[in-house]
Specification:
6 strands, 13% strand, 317 residues, globular, 3-stranded mixed beta sheet
Length: 317
């Protein structure tokens, strides 16, 4: 007997080591009950149920399904649900390729599909909400930290932007489902954070980009001007009070350790306290020597080693 589409999806996720075999039967039962209540057309997708049950994260689901060519795109869903004809989808995709604005961004701009319909489709397919960027409260105190985690060039290239960092959870906005692949990379690069994605409109992304990076986003040159530079090289934090800004020094330490390991060094746990003391000492040396209040500490690659530089920041008069 051939496997159903849903069971094949479950088998793939099991083979990826993401779920157990008994989870497959559990999800299939939920799908059947939903179909009986609401009809097969409204039956939730296999991965969406797993995310709802907290057995799988949306990013894990996306990565596994895309890797195994089982991912249903937003475009396919729009056609299969008879929301838009294939000819209209093709026109929007052509405009997307021409302008560099994501398909989802154009779809929201053109207002041919009611926003609640798009929101529901994104939840059905990816289990990720579509949010209004105006709902986000920006904290200027977090500007340096957020822009250091995802620099402006990287944000522009991938159209992904950090919105909020609170209690080790980093909320990031993406403008296209493919941005989930980059969220997966962020999770691996910054294991100290739980990176949570939300969809936003392209106009919302551009608006928040200007607020965070204090310059306008030009999507026409983003791909040309930015290179996929390593996050960790040239990472920098500004310190004006080592005691009150301890979180910045901790972030610098975590970046330093990750950079060392990326360059082939071995992990050396238990060095955080010594690192904090080192930065505090160097801060005191620099401010006394240069009569300043703020010091920029940066990661620099020198001769195959990752070093830390300290640069005085003079107060403007």
């Amino acid at each position: 007997m051939t496997e159903t589409w849903e069971k094949k999806t479950g088998t793939i996720l099991e083979q990826e080591g993401l779920i157990h075999s008994n989870d497959i039967d559990r999800v299939l039962a939920i799908q059947k009950n939903t179909a009986d209540d609401k009809g097969s057309k409204n039956r939730p997708l296999f991965g969406s149920i797993l995310c709802e049950l907290n057995l799988l994260t949306p990013v894990e689901n996306f990565h596994a399904l895309k890797k195994n060519k089982k991912l249903i795109s937003l475009q396919e869903r729009l056609v299969s649900q008879k929301v838009l004809p294939a000819s209209r989808i093709a026109q929007i995709q052509a405009r997307s390729a021409e302008t560099g604005i994501p398909f989802l961004g154009l779809l929201l701009e053109e207002d041919q599909v009611p926003k609640p319909v798009i929101q529901q489709m994104l939840m059905d397919l990816f289990h990720i909400p579509l949010r209004s960027i105006s709902d986000m409260v920006f904290s200027d105190k977090k500007r340096e930290t957020l822009s250091s985690i995802i620099p402006a060039a990287v944000a522009g290239r991938h159209q992904i932007i950090p919105l909020v960092l609170k209690n080790e959870t980093l909320l990031c906005a993406i403008t296209d489902p493919d941005g989930l692949g980059f969220i997966d990379a962020l999770n691996k690069r910054f294991p100290q954070y739980r990176v949570t994605p939300v969809f936003v409109s392209f106009s919302g992304f551009s608006w928040f980009y200007k607020i965070l990076y204090q310059k306008s986003f030009d999507h026409r040159h983003a791909q040309e001007d930015s290179k996929d530079l390593p996050f960790l090289q040239n990472f920098s934090v500004k310190i004006s009070d080592p005691v009150r800004e301890k979180d910045r020094i901790v972030l610098l330490y975590e970046m330093y350790e990750q950079a060392r390991q990326q360059m082939g060094g071995t992990a050396q746990p238990g060095r955080k306290t010594a690192f904090l003391q080192f930065i505090q000492k160097q801060y005191q040396v620099v401010i006394e020597k240069f009569q300043c209040r703020t010091v920029a500490f940066s990661l620099e690659k020198q001769g195959g080693r990752m070093m830390i530089s300290a640069i005085p920041i003079k107060q403007e008069t």
